[in-house]
Write a structure and sequence with these properties.
The chain has 61 residues and is mainly beta. It contains 1 helix and 2 strands. It has one helix at residues 2-6, and strands at residues 37-45, 48-56. Strands 1-2 form a two-stranded antiparallel ribbon. The radius of gyration is 17 Å and the shape is elongated. The mean pLDDT is 75.
Length: 61
C-alpha cells in the first residue's frame, strides 16, 4: 500500500491553471457467449464526477 500511496499526486503538486493527464487502458474481459456488453466507469475527483460509458461488441469487418 505504501508504494501505491507514493505514486499518488498530492494536493500541492499542481499549481492553479495546470493540469495532469494520462491514459487508462482496459483489457476487455473474456466472454464465452460473445454478446455485447456496456460498462460504466465513474471517477470522482474532489467534487467533480466523471462518467465514462464503454461499449464492447463484435469487431466490425
Amino acid at each position: 500500500m505504501a508504494v501505491l500511496e507514493q505514486s499518488v499526486i498530492k494536493d500541492n503538486t499542481l499549481m492553479p491553471g495546470e493540469w495532469y493527464g494520462g491514459q487508462l487502458h482496459l483489457t476487455p474481459p473474456t466472454d464465452q457467449a460473445g454478446g455485447p456488453k456496456t460498462y460504466t466507469i465513474i471517477i470522482t475527483v474532489g467534487s467533480d464526477r466523471h462518467v465514462v460509458e464503454v461499449s464492447q461488441g463484435p469487431a466490425g469487418t
